[in-house]
Amino acid sequence: MESRLVKLKSDFNNVITIRNSVKNIFDILQTRIDKLKLFYSEFVKNNRTEMFVFGLDSFNFQSKIIDIEYDDMKRLFLAINNRMYCEYFKLNKIIIEYILNNVHDKKILDITRANIYPIYKDLEPYKEYKFELVLEIHENILNLVSILIALLNNKENELSIHMTKKNIGLNIDNFITSFNFNITVMREKIIMFIAHIEFFHKLHTKYLKRFSNKIQLMYTHINNDINFDDSVEINKNKRNELIQELNIDNIDAHLLKDIKKSIGSESQGSESDNEFIIEDKNYTEDNKSNSSLSSILSLESITNRIRSGTLVSSQNSSPKIINDNKRNLKEIFKKNVHKVSNILQLCKPNVEKSLKSNVSNKEIQNMFYNINTSCESIINNEIDIEEIQKEEEIQKEEEIQKEEENNITLEINLEEHKEAEKIEHIEAEKIEPKKDKKKKKKKNKK
Questions:
Q1: Which residue in 82, 119, 132, 431 is deepest, having the highest Cβ count within 10 Å?
Q2: Could you read off the pLDDT of 154-167 as tens digits, one per residue?
């Protein structure tokens, strides 16, 4: 438990560093906003004609959008800060109540009663509490938990003394069981308090990290739109962390590309990779016949890119991105091999009119299979022809199943149609005798 208590202190230090970085960005943004307001006021003072004011409206709206976004960020930050105080305040109250009810040491009771903090109100979720209060209440919680751990250790020592007395021959078995029960209850309570603090640290780091990403994006967008003289770029490590977190959250590829451009961390190699993957995803079945020849060229471009090193990821890139690139390239190779085989089938010449070729169709297909395997071996150092053949067999089986399902549906439709015709025929037979009877009655009357 002592080791977990030490880890809690280090985790909370991480929370403090994230919050401090966010606070610094807020301060920088405030200076930017003040500068923009000063620029606008100077423009308005020096240019008061109607057309000049009309021309300054766009600049006024630009600064107003930044103000609105800044206010929204400030409000969200206040909500997170408020929630941090709420959770620590309530936990502190629960621990104090437990100590007052179960601990009888006067010194400890005096320490717990001395700690008085501003009462948290659930109806004021945006009230600003100073972060110094959060630090104090968190430190107080850790102190109270450490006091409880010390009491637990003393009680365990007492239990060992009682056990020695029991071994002498005293009939204190029931006393020891009840004493041990109190110790186990106290131990579990302490473990529960520590688990609560750990969970709060996890939540607060998550909230603050996400908020930090948002405010850094806002900061980079403002710096990209307006070139301030004292603009400070985001650290490369921080930039990479931001991109990795966005990758983990499974953000849309186009949006991620825009974000990379906005923070100025996208290299030429990564741009070519993203474009290549996006083009492959947007490929539709309608234009397969029109783009079949271009797909052959894409195979050549792939091999050229592999040789030049644009598609091979660098040592600094993450293993997840490398695996994704390999999978995408494998899928592209497989598709292109199928396309080439389809082209060969379409372009089969008539035997009567054409001359006999030295190379057969199977040999040509094998050549393209060799291209596929060589490209895959460059990327993955493995030959996956058997996997490709298995996938082709699975596709064939699926097509056969679809045909069988279609045949079953046709048979069902035919049976339903026949039954409907039978019912109509029976109804027609019922109606005809009635008509004959009516005709006979008319004839008798005549």
A1: 82
A2: 999 999 999 999 99
Tokens of 332: 């592209």
Looking at the predicted structure, is the pLDDT value of residue 21 above 80? Answer: yes
Residue 311 lies in a domain: yes
Q: Are 364 and 244 members of one domain?
A: no
Q: Are residues 316 and 256 in the same domain?
A: no
CB 202 within 8 A of CB 12: no
Does the structure show a pLDDT above 80 at 359?
no
Give the model's pLDDT for residue 274: 42
Cα→Cα distances 191→13, 99, 152, 187, 233, Å? 21, 15, 12, 6, 44
Q: How many domains does the chain have?
A: 3
* Selection from 243, 261, 263, 239 nearest residue 251 by Cα: 243
Residue 238 CB contacts under 8 Å (≥ 6 apart), including other chains:
216
Torsion angle (degrees, nearest 10) of CA 218, 219, 220, 224: 100
- Range of weakest confidence among 200-209, 252-261, 274-283, 375-384: 274-283
3-state class (DSSP) for residue 412? helix
Output the pTM of the full model. 0.54
Closest CA to 300 of 380, 368, 377: 368
Tell me the mean pLDDT in the region 147-153.
94
The helix (run of H) or strand (run of E) holding residue 153 is helix 131-168
What is the pLDDT averaged over residues 386-415? Answer: 83
Percent of the chain with pLDDT over 90: 36
Q: Which of 226, 253, 284 lies at the terminal end of a domain, its last residue?
A: 226
CA distance 376 to 127: 59
Looking at the structure, tell me whether residues 147 and 70 fall in a common domain.
Answer: yes
CA torsion angle 349 352 353 356 (round to 10): 70
Whether 444 is covered by a domain: the verdict is no
Distances (CA, A) of 115 to 12, 112, 118, 126, 140: 21, 6, 10, 24, 8
Do residues 252 and 323 both lie within one domain?
Answer: no
Q: Sort 302 into a burial class: Cβ within 10 Å, 0-12 / 13-18 / 19+.
A: buried
Domain residues for 259? 233-266
Whether 437 is covered by a domain: the verdict is no
Structure tokens at 349: 């010449």
Could you tell me if residue 240 is inside a domain? yes
| Residue 106 shares a structural domain with residue 90 | yes
